[in-house]
Design a protein that fits this description.
By secondary structure, the chain is an alpha/beta fold. The protein has 2 domains: 13-255, Aspartate Aminotransferase, domain 2 (3-Layer(aba) Sandwich); 258-378, Alpha-Beta Complex (Aspartate Aminotransferase, domain 1). The protein contains 11 helices and 17 strands. It has helices spanning 13-23, 31-44, 55-65, 82-90, 109-119, 151-160, 212-222, 245-276, 305-314, 343-350, 362-378, and strands at residues 48-52, 73-77, 94-98, 120-123, 126-129, 135-139, 164-168, 176-177, 180-181, 188-192, 205-209, 283-284, 291-292, 299-301, 320-321, 336-338, 351-353. Strand 5 and strand 6 form a beta hairpin. Helix 3 crosses helix 4 (82-90). It is globular and about 70 Å long. It starts with 12 loop residues before the first helix and ends with a helix. It binds pyridoxal-5'-phosphate. Pyridoxal-5'-phosphate is lined by residues 54-56, 80-81, 83-84, 142, 168, 170-171, 192, 194, 205.
């Protein structure tokens, strides 16, 4: 089976992990944690990085730090991985789900702008949704598949309605909008280093911010809110969310190789785009000229998605459908869904992701393309 998206571990991973094991520094204290968060902050251009156990908990903490509380609303796209929505629900807030654009599959900001203009009022310095009377505290754009929407427009909406921006940048390490890295536009950005991401620590995350106060609080909250180095005195409800040294050691080795891995991904994207253009009714995700995407996971649209999915998986090419739209999942079906044409459904019904590992070989990509061509030739 040609895998969908597996890590490439060809650098100093063994050496650094062995060092952790040899010295006993495997847990949440240790120099690799600091080094890893510094490397991610430096790469993205953020002032501070705070490592955590995964992207989901990073999104949870970021919302707490941005003042999201039970009974608030947080805006998120309807097409995202479940973790974005779970993290909103952990805070006790309810999402406002916004449909996505049919071309780039990112949150439809024109639709959102119209919705906010028609359905909110200003009360005590907050934007309140008229139908629920609840405050909308934050907006969580998701840089879906490492692609990026119109961040100028998003930041203007956030400013107008006084919304804190928390970027779900979990899929977008290596992606830039007008030369600025994702995760650095809003109050906080969160990266994931889950097994399928562009680099991986097995499981892990880093929150980035330019705000020193938020960075300090993020570290405090993720380490059980311990207020004294020696004494067991804790000054609020904290979380055991800190990344451990042995995983951060893998992260440091992965970051050292990141420029190579990113180049591989972009090469892979170029290969598929040129080889698959004009095959069947394949339609690629559109990428704005303002965006330099990391090309994390190659995904395209086709009306024959279900058939192609079966053919590829039966013929040694691992492929997957896209996320079911959030408004269709039981837990969120009663939440607000802002939509005119339900592009989310059309995207879900037609998108398929194909093998995209940073270590994918040319022969493997040729096999993927061969199988796709074979499928369309047989289904004419
Ligand atoms: C869009 C999105 N949000 C959040 C997450 C959560 O990250 P993690 O798996 O590290 O918790 C992921 C990845 O898994 C993701 O793809």
């Amino acid at each position: 089976m040609i895998p969908l998206s597996v890590p490439l571990l060809e650098g100093n991973e063994w050496k650094y992990v062995k060092e952790c094991l040899d010295t006993g520094w495997i847990s949440s204290a240790g120099s690799y944690v600091n080094q890893f968060e510094q490397m991610v902050a430096d790469y993205t251009g953020a002032k501070y990085g705070v490592a955590c156990m995964n992207g989901t908990v990073g999104l949870h903490i970021a919302q707490i730090l941005c003042g999201v509380e039970a009974g608030d609303h947080v805006i998120a796209p309807n097409i995202t991985f479940i973790a974005t929505l779970n993290a909103i629900k952990y805070t006790g807030a309810d999402p406002i789900l916004v449909d996505v654009n049919p071309g780039d599959w990112q949150m439809d900001l024109d639709l959102l702008g119209e919705f906010l203009a028609k359905n909110t009022s200003q009360k005590d310095g907050l934007t309140v949704l008229n139908s629920t009377g609840k405050a909308i505290k934050a907006i969580m754009p998701v840089h879906v598949l490492g692609n990026i929407g119109d961040l100028d427009k998003l930041m203007a909406i956030a400013e107008k309605y006084k919304l804190k921006v928390i970027e779900d940048s979990t899929e977008s390490l290596g992606s830039f909008y007008k030369g600025k890295h994702t995760g650095t536009f809003g109050e906080m950005g969160v990266f994931s280093f889950n097994g399928n991401k562009i680099i991986s620590t097995g499981g892990g995350g880093v929150m980035v911010t330019d705000n020193e106060e938020l960075a300090k609080k993020a570290k405090h909250l993720t380490t059980q809110a311990k207020a004294s180095a020696m004494e067991y005195i804790h000054d609020e409800i904290g979380y055991n969310y800190r990344l451990v040294n042995v995983l951060a050691a893998i992260g440091v080795a992965q970051m050292e190789k990141f420029p190579d891995l990113l180049r591989n991904k972009q090469k892979m994207d170029g290969f598929y785009r040129s080889e698959l253009a004009g095959i069947g009714d394949i339609e690629f995700q559109s990428v704005s000229p303002d965006v330099k995407a990391n090309c994390w996971l190659f995904t395209f649209k086709t009306s024959k998605m279900r058939g192609l999915l079966a053919h590829l998986n039966e013929n040694g090419v691992m492929s997957r459908p896209f996320w079911m739209p959030m408004n269709r999942l039981n837990m969120f079906k009663n939440d607000i869904f802002v939509s005119e044409n339900n592009h989310s459904d059309a995207i879900y019904e037609s998108c398929i992701s194909i093998p995209s590992s940073a270590g994918i070989t040319e022969e493997q990509m040729q096999e993927v393309v061969k199988q796709i061509k074979q499928f369309y030739a047989n289904t004419k």
